[in-house]
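On clarity, I found the account of how folds are encoded harder to follow than it need be. Since the whole study asks how a given chain folds, the encoding of that fold should be made plain. For illustration, here is how one protein appears when written out as sequence plus structure tokens:

:::
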Amino acid sequence: MTVVYIALLGEGTTVWRPAQARHIQGDVYELLGSIPVDEQWQFSPGQLVECEEQVLPGGSSGLVACRPIAA
């Protein structure tokens, strides 16, 4: 399991939600878990996404879900 950060939509500012993901290959991960009722994620659990290492607010770095992978 790996932590991947997913953008939350409709927040008025950039907000990242840490979520569990399973590494598939290279930069591709499968998002796991479930979306809390009061949140809207950029990508959905079960979706394959390409991730990139990015600097997050506060200066830490992490894997950020950037693009969906076509099935």
